[in-house]
Amino acid sequence: MTFALLQQAAAGGAPGWTQFVFIGGMALMFYFLLIRPQSKARKEMEARLAKLKAGDEVVLSSGLYATIDRVEDKDLYVKLGNTVVKARRTAVAALASEAEPKQN
Predict the structure, then answer these.
(1) SMART domains, per this entry (predicted)?
(2) Which among 17, 40, 38, 36 is positioned nearest to 28, based on CA atoms?
C-alpha cells in the first residue's frame, strides 16, 4: 500500500534534474554576488599595498595619518609627528591622497 502511494507522489512531481539546475543557479549567484567582488577588492588592495614607498602619506586602519619613513618586506616604518613607529603593511587603509577607501 505505501509503495503505491510513493509511486503516485513521485509521478506527479517535477523531474529530478530541475533540482540540480536550481542548485547550480544558486551557486552561480553566490559566486557573482559574493566571492568575485571580494576577491577583486582584495587584489586591488594588495596591488595598492605593493606600490607603497617612502614619503607617501597614508591613513592607517586606526584612523591616524602618517608618512612612510621606510619600507621593509612586511613592515613599514611610519612617522607620527616626530616619532617613527613600526607598523604592518596591512595596517594601511588608504593613501591620504585618495578621498575615501571603497566600502562594499
Answers:
(1) YajC (SM01323)
(2) 36
Task: Write the CA distances from 50 to 10, 18, 27, 44, 92, integer angstroms.
Answer: 59, 47, 33, 10, 11
C-alpha cell at 51: 606600490
58 burial via Cβ count (<10 Å: 0-12, 13-18, 19+) = buried
pLDDT in tens, 29-77: 999 999 999 999 999 988 988 888 999 999 999 999 999 999 998 899 9
Write the DSSP string, 33-55.
Answer: IIIHHHHHHHHHHHHHHHT--TT
Residues in the chain: 104
